[in-house]
Amino acid sequence: MLTIHAAPLVLPVGAAAVVDGAVAVDGDRIAALGPYGEVVAAHPAARVRRWPGLIAPGLRQDRARELLTRCYHPDPREAGALGELPLWGEDFERLATTMDATRRAGSVRRGLQRMLRHGTTHVAGPFGADDPALRAAVSRSGLVRVAALPGEPPLVREGVPDLDPFAAGGDLARTAHGPLTAGGRADLAVFDVPDEAALYGGGPRPCVATVLAGRLVHRVR
């Protein structure tokens, strides 16, 4: 069924922002993008989902491998003892000495789910044959695997990795997986913020929905 995602602002990247915009999604593809009135007129039978804030391309998580292999993502039942944030560094190393395959797999699964909650649709590897369980988990998640950017170290970088791709300091053009275009894959992120500037800096940028290959895989209820 064709679905129209509408918001006060659509930021396609590489093209002008669309005020009161909409993205029509048919299967895993973008069927149309433009002003809400025009998109609805062209697809009158489509289901409409209205979102607050803005629609942008899904984001790229460049430190995905670190987040999945060098961080522990606590189970909600462990929050009292371990907190809710990913454990890194010495805290992770202490856990890793006693972590079995089942517990590690649970952490990886939760890490992937939490990436989706931050608008991530693409993850930078490598996710190679050296770790088949990790590669399989990423494949099952539906997240798109991409190569590390040219000139960047593939595995380890400075500082604590963050689930929020914008925490690395890039703008939307740098952080998005690519532009939203008619005929392109329908990977979207919806943020409850008024404009692009509000995506940057230290303020809140709540991701209220993530669409992965046309499927709504995260939404804030």
From TrEMBL:
Q: Which SUPFAM superfamilies match?
A: Composite domain of metallo-dependent hydrolases
**Does the keyword field hold Methyltransferase?**
no
Q: What is the lineage of its organism?
A: Bacteria, Bacillati, Actinomycetota, Actinomycetes, Kitasatosporales
Alphabetically sorted, this entry's keywords are:
Hydrolase, Metal-binding, Zinc
Q: Which Gene3D superfamilies does its entry note? A: Urease, subunit C, domain 1
Instruction: Provide the Aminodeoxyfutalosine deaminase/Imidazolonepropionase-like composite domain boundaries.
Output: 21-46
Record-given protein name: Aminodeoxyfutalosine deaminase/Imidazolonepropionase-like composite domain-containing protein
Q: Which domain of life is it from?
A: Bacteria
Keyword Metal-binding assigned to the entry: answer is yes
